[in-house]
Amino acid sequence: MTQLIAKRLVATGAVLLALTGIVFLLQKLSPINPVHSYLGANASAGAIKVESKLLGYNRPIADQYLRYVGNLLRGNLGESLRTRRPVTTDLGAYLPATLELASFGLLLSVMLGAILGLATSRKSLGGGFFRVFMLLGASTPPFLLALFGLIVFYHDLNWLPATGRTSLANPPTGPTPFLTVDTLFHGEWFGFTDAVGHLILPGLCIAILPAVSIGRVFRSSLVATLRTDYVRTARSKGLREIVVLWRHAVRNSLGAALSMTGLQVGLMFAGVVVIESIFSWPGIGLYVAQSIPFGDFPAIAGVTLVLGVGYVLVNTVVDICQAVADPRIKL
Amino acid sequence: MAVAEPYVAPSTGTVRGLAALHGISRRMSRASMLDRAAIGVLLLITVMAVFVPLIAPYGTDTIVGDAFAHPTWHFLMGTDDVGRDIFSRVLYGLRTSWFSALAVIASGVLVGGSIGLVAGSAGGWIDTVLMRFTDVFLALPGPVLAIAVVAALGPSLPHTLLAVAIVWWPFYSRIVRGEVKALAARPHLNAARLAGVGRVRLAVRHLLPGAIPATLVTASLDVGNLVLTLASLSFLGLGAPEPAPELGAMSAQGLPYLLTDWWVPVMPGLGILFLALASNLAGDGLRDLMGER
């Protein structure tokens, strides 16, 4: 087991190295000269040349890459061309909101996916309705969902807020990055319900697409499990269908759905960028969406690295969990 | 099914592949109404996309009336903030979305498929190296990387397509390699080898055809995802610049008018929904026709 985990961790390290390599190459490809932007728009060609040498931009590529990785490890991601602050500082300010939204979205998509998978695996339970729901869910762009949500639940019904993370002027900053937890921690009940209300629309918008994929995989593995001999045995023992389902079938069908969940996190991150910019959610998605028109590559690279590392780590944890839960799996 | 070698099980390998392709027209007549309708709609979209300039009632940049005119028979989807006909722009946008998605899928199948074919048929260290390379790409979040690639190259439609193509191939390389590996163990491959067939001919004539059905089904189920991903990138401003009729970008530019003139941002989004729905239904239909899971 330890050996398996060690092997998986080595692979994760290699993937992370590749990620930094790709981002580094993109930085080299991008038309923005970091030295030029560092010195300002009026820098003379001579000054740029001198500074390039000083900052090591005239060294061999491999050498520059090693320095780049070294800087990353020290938490130095360069300076944003738009905000003129270190990217690390910006990310620190924007990341908590994204963490909260993405966690909430992931929770929603797993719950929705489980419901969809269970409902469509059976003939009864309105399977047809859920099938149509899944097809529509898989075909609707997240931003269209957001537009509908805003029109119906904000404009027409006025049930949910449209933008931001909270209505409080001075939201508590507490022990965790999560506003929902912090407000509870400080005993602000209104703040808590308000924060949850702000989460619902954007959370749903990023959750639907992943939920459909999770539901599909869960359904097909559930259907396969329900056809196996041991399930037939359980049924012929006279067990009630619900017991057969929960005790015997669901557990053995979770594996594929779990790895699909890990993979869907990548899709969800892309959704986060779009949805945050619609709902003015103060997270790194909004940050990157605002950086795009400025061609602010250091900021975009920083967000790419953070989301990429998050995705790789989530999938590593999922794989290890699966290997621990199911000894048949070899990493 | 015309099977020459009697020892090849009729439902396996190359034979299955060719038969599946051959049998499509025959099975089409037995397909469900929905499957037929979806594939028909998709063909219709393709034909319409080619002839958009003849179909669209107005040009993409022509100011045809007042700004923010409600959807009426005259302007089916209303007009936008400068008085352009949204319906015409959505038609042109559908063409861009559809052809972009097809181009990226084609490149994914071509690049990923070639890598998978070489890896699967060569085996040994070539297989290991190529598949490790593929795994690294599979382990990274594609859509997020695509954003970074476009941002580095500068926003434009070709750059967006290139960026998505870069992250879209690894999946196909896995699928083709898997099919090829499974096929390589079949008796007809041994027969071909004994008959002295060369490596390249073995790969192209005896392995590749067997991998086609699975790849085709995967690709057709994948087009819907790709349409959505491209639309999201366009929504973020990572597509053709301003006046170009791109559905995602049109929706994003119409966002400020959502609560007063809803049709400006919503109609282009509905266009995406329509295209993705048609391709998802057609993908399901094609899967049923080919008898694959």
Would you kindly provide a written description of the structure presented here, covering whatever features stand out?
The complex is a heterodimer of chains A (331) and B (293). Chain A is mainly α and 331 residues long. Helix content of chain A is 75%, strand content 0%. Chain A has 2 domains: 2-73; 90-325, MetI-like (MetI-like fold, Orthogonal Bundle). In chain A, helix 5 runs antiparallel to helix 6 and helix 5 runs antiparallel to helix 11 (241-278). The longest helix of chain A is centred in the middle third of the chain and has 38 residues, at 189-226. Chain A is globular. The model of chain B is unreliable at 1-13 (pLDDT under 50). Chain B has helices spanning 13-28, 33-50, 52-55, 86-122, 124-138, 142-153, 157-168, 170-184, 187-194, 199-235, 247-254, 263-290. Chain B has 293 residues and is mainly α. Helix content of chain B is 72%, strand content 0%. The longest helix of chain B is centred in the middle third of the chain and has 37 residues, at 86-122. Chain B starts with 12 loop residues before the first helix and ends with a helix. The chains are: A mainly alpha (331), B mainly alpha (293).
Tag the structure with descriptive keywords.
heterodimer; A: 331 residues; mainly alpha; B: 72% helix
Estimate what percentage of residues of chain A fall within beta strands: under 5%
What name does the CATH topology of the largest domain in chain A carry? MetI-like fold
The CATH superfamily title of the largest domain in chain A? MetI-like
Number of helices of chain B: 12
What's the order of the H and E elements of chain A?
HHHHHHHHHHHHH
Rg of chain B from C-alpha positions? Answer: 23 Å
Number of domains of chain A: 2
Backbone structural class of chain B? mainly alpha
Count of DSSP H/I helices of chain A? 13
State the low-pLDDT regions of chain B, or none: 1-13
Mean pLDDT of chain A: 84
Please mark out the parts of chain A with pLDDT under 50 across 5 or more consecutive residues, or reply none.
none
- Would you tell me the structural class of the helices and strands of chain A? mainly alpha
